[in-house]
Design brief:
The radius of gyration is 29 Å and the shape is elongated. The protein has 16 helices and four strands. The relative contact order is 0.12. It has a two-stranded antiparallel ribbon. With 443 residues, it is mainly α. The longest helix is centred in the first third of the chain and has 38 residues. It is 62% helix and 4% strand. Helix 7 runs antiparallel to helix 9. A hairpin with a 2-residue loop joins strand 1 and strand 2. InterPro entries: AdenyloSucc_lyase_C, Fumarate_lyase_fam, Fumarate_lyase_N, L-Aspartase-like. It comes from Pseudoponticoccus marisrubri.
């Protein structure tokens, strides 16, 4: 297998990331770093730190010059960071040494690379937001079409009480709504510029480093954190945590879809499924299990990233390198998980007949809780629970419906007690609340 499936000619279709993968190419990183250098030069010229003519030349070159990533490899391996090689190549490409000497004035490598990363993460968040809205729109369609279908809720893999398919869909969708609602605040806090100089104290950034940082942030469309954050990785951690939340929500959905489509249940059908190499009858829930695998992968990467957040002193090479090894994979994993979720929810369909068959197959035992509370109206609750359990044992032993056994013992029990559709509690209301919220967010 390849080192990473996301750029594999064989596996990339199984772990699709849409446009997100392009944000983590060498070319995308170089272009983002050049844009940061151009914005820095403009902000410095506005403060009189470097000449206006030099800033104009640097900014123009940041948009026009092309730099070969391979040309940076040898020097990057020696320096442990790509910025020095980029700055040297950038200066050569400008072919104007009188202006190029002011490139990267007073900044440090991490300022440029962290700011450039934020430009790419901003785009990654926008793409994930679009996927979230698409999934919510598809889930809302499911609630409208099949939300009233009654099925057996399951806890610990066992039949619990009746619920509705709409409530199940809502349980998938609420975490996505929460993530979507959290996104504006995340952008405001975490998508921030970095400009603090060699030792995080802006010692070579001119007479007013704070104003310079704010101007540079404005030009890049990023937030001004108000301080340096070379060793404070909170912005990275917050973005990674948010992406992990979206992947975990997709993973939960994938687990439920895998179980609901398994042989012997078949309460849901997926729009497309995978074939076996040897068993012609198989239709494997490939997309669903991919969502689960991706969620686990993202969760593990996030744990590694959290551990790497402990930076020694003013900057820590090992911790920073760990970010490079984990963060891109985390972003791509979350993107792929929601890409699968978007595809599956568009083709997902409920099978109300299969759901009803499951309810009937329980012989009414799924209504035992409702029976115990009905009995509690005429006897103490502990006694009612014990009596309901005894009636369930009798129904199992006699292979007769619980309703028949219970009404033989208590003829005045209402027939509606044994109608699963009348025992779904707040499920219909929760489904409708989710439908309204999802429509509102999906647009």
């Amino acid at each position: 297998m390849p080192a990473t499936p996301f750029d594999s000619a064989i596996l990339s279709g199984l772990f699709p990331t849409d446009e997100t993968a392009r944000l983590f190419s060498d070319t995308a990183e170089i272009r983002a770093m050049m844009l940061v250098e151009g914005a820095l030069a403009q902000a410095q010229a506005a403060q009189g730190v470097i000449p206006d003519t030099a800033a104009a030349a640097i900014h123009r070159a940041s948009l026009e010059c092309q730099i070969d990533p391979a040309a940076l490899a040898e020097e990057t391996a020696q320096n442990g960071v790509s910025t020095p090689a980029l700055v040297a190549a950038f200066r050569d490409a400008m072919q104007a040494p009188e202006h190029a000497q002011y490139l990267h004035w007073g900044a440090t490598s991490q300022d440029i690379q962290d700011s450039a990363l934020m430009l790419r993460l901003r785009q990654a968040l926008a793409l994930q937001e679009a996927r979230l809205k698409a999934v919510l729109g598809a889930l809302a369609d499911l609630v409208e079409r099949d939300g009233d279908a009654v099925l057996a809720a399951r806890t610990y893999g066992q039949h619990a009480t009746p619920t509705t398919f709409g409530a199940v869909v809502a349980s998938w969708g609420w975490p996505l709504i929460a993530a979507l609602d959290a996104l504006p605040g995340l952008r405001q806090r975490a998508l921030c510029v970095s400009l603090a100089g060699a030792a995080d104290n802006a010692s070579a950034l001119g007479p007013d480093p704070a104003a310079l940082r704010a101007d540079m942030a404005h030009r890049l469309g990023l937030a001004d954190p108000g301080h340096g954050w070379h060793s404070d990785r909170t912005p990275i951690l917050e973005i990674a945590h948010w992406l992990t939340r979206t992947a975990l929500a997709a993973g939960k959905m994938g687990e439920d879809l895998t179980l609901a489509t398994q042989s012997g249940i078949g309460e849901l059908s997926l729009g497309g499924s995978g074939a076996s190499s040897t068993m012609p009858q198989k239709q494997n829930p490939v997309g669903a299990v991919a969502m689960v695998a991706l969620a686990r992968h993202v969760q593990g990467l996030n744990g590694t990233l959290q551990g790497a957040a402990i930076h020694r002193q003013q900057r820590d090479g090992a911790a920073w390198f760990t970010e490079w090894l984990t963060l891109p994979q985390l972003v791509l994993g979350a993107a792929a998980a929601l890409t699968h979720a978007r595809t599956l929810t568009r083709g997902l369909a409920a099978d109300p007949e299969a759901m009803s068959a499951t309810l009937e197959a329980t012989g009414g035992l799924i209504l035992a809780e409702a029976l115990s509370f009905a009995l509690a109206e005429r006897m103490p609750r502990p006694e009612a629970q014990a009596r309901a359990k005894a009636l369930c044992r009798e129904a199992r032993a006699a292979h007769r419906p619980l309703a028949e056994i219970a009404r033989a013992a208590y003829p005045d029990l209402p027939a509606t007690l044994f109608d699963p559709a009348r025992q779904t509690g707040t499920a219909p209301a929760e489904a409708q609340a989710f439908l309204s919220a999802a429509r509102d967010r999906a647009g």
